[in-house]
């Protein structure tokens, strides 16, 4: 039986400092690497090309759109999606090579092992994450808007056992460098979907967001990192709604 071909695809912007580790973690099990570069101003494209990746410059117009474009360039039987701050564990690579030979499955979820400020997060709601990242190419497409893209797959889905290592934010500065972009995209998506600012909802939501992560999801057991994660995540929600309010104030 012919061995299935796997394509790794990544969408990225200004990830020159870590995208090489992502590509190298998967390069020995994939037949091609595709990177859709959202017009980076650093050496992201150069780093990827030096590692043999096919790089497509494209202005960012939403996560679903960007990933669908990447998916359209995939020639492998299977499409493997990673972010620049993610790496396959050695155990997961072996599991993937076996999984793609199962003709009855159209896609696989991966469990995630999340790192925050250089340390693995054991709680805080980050210990049970899983994401659909490996799919049969012709059976999948992305849906969604500017944020919160999802994969729709025609066929049976299963979950693998071994994790993707996700090195989300290595410094607080790195977190807030992305914070402004993501809160703006989230606010714009809410506005486009017809959602409007409600002060009472915000006042009720913010305490719950903190309590959920820090107490209900045992974030306090992650020490200072758990407190920071709960605090930053709550502030994210606050700023997202503040930007939604600002959009409503702009003259039409």
Q: Describe it for me?
A:
With 252 residues, this protein is of the alpha/beta class. It contains 7 helices and 12 strands. It has helices spanning 19-26, 44-50, 63-72, 90-99, 172-192, 199-216, 223-249, and strands spanning 6-12, 32-37, 54-57, 78-81, 86-88, 107-116, 119-120, 130-136, 140-143, 150-153, 157-159, 164-169. Strands 1, 2, 3, 4, 5, 6, 7, 8, 11 and 12 form a 10-stranded mixed sheet that branches. β2 (32-37), α2 and β3 (54-57) form a beta-alpha-beta unit. The chain starts with 5 loop residues before the first strand and ends with a helix. The model has no long low-confidence stretch (mean pLDDT 96).
Any chance you could write out the topology, listing elements then pairs?
Blueprint: E1 6-12, H1 19-26, E2 32-37, H2 44-50, E3 54-57, H3 63-72, E4 78-81, E5 86-88, H4 90-99, E6 107-116, E7 119-120, E8 130-136, E9 140-143, E10 150-153, E11 157-159, E12 164-169, H5 172-192, H6 199-216, H7 223-249
Parallel strand pairs: 1-2, 1-4, 2-3, 6-11, 6-12
Antiparallel strand pairs: 4-8, 5-12, 6-7, 6-8, 9-10
Helix pairs in contact: 5-7, 6-7
Name the features:
alpha/beta; 7 helices; ten-stranded mixed beta sheet; two-stranded antiparallel ribbon; 252 residues; single chain
The secondary-structure element order is EHEHEHEEHEEEEEEEHHH
Count every beta strand, where a strand is a DSSP E run of 2 or more residues.
12
Total of DSSP H or I helical runs spanning 4+ residues: 7
Overall pLDDT score:
96
Question: Care to give the gist of this entry?
Answer:
The protein is 40% helix and 24% strand. With 252 residues, the protein is an alpha/beta fold.
């Amino acid at each position: 039986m012919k061995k299935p071909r796997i394509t790794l695809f990544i969408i990225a912007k200004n990830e020159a400092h870590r995208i090489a580790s992502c590509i190298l973690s998967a390069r020995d099990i994939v037949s091609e690497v595709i990177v859709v570069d959202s017009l980076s101003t650093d050496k992201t494209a150069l780093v990827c090309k030096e590692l043999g990746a096919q790089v497509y410059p494209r202005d960012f117009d939403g996560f679903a759109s960007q990933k669908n474009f990447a998916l359209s360039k995939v020639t492998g039987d299977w499409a493997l999606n990673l972010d620049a701050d993610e790496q396959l564990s050695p155990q997961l690579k072996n599991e993937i090579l076996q999984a793609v030979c199962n003709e009855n499955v159209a896609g696989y979820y991966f469990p995630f092992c999340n790192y925050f400020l250089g340390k693995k997060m054991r709680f805080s709601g980050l210990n049970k994450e899983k994401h659909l990242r490996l799919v049969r190419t012709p059976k999948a497409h992305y849906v969604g808007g500017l944020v919160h893209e999802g994969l729709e797959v025609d066929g049976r889905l299963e979950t693998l056992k071994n994790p993707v290592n996700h090195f989300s934010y290595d410094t607080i500065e790195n977190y807030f460098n992305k914070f402004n972009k993501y809160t703006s995209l989230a606010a714009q998506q809410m506005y486009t979907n017809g959602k409007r600012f409600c002060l009472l909802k915000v006042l009720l939501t913010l305490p719950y967001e903190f309590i959920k992560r820090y107490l209900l999801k045992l974030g306090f057991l992650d020490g200072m990192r758990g407190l920071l994660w709960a605090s930053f995540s709550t502030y994210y929600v606050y700023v997202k709604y503040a930007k939604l309010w600002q959009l409503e104030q702009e003259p039409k």
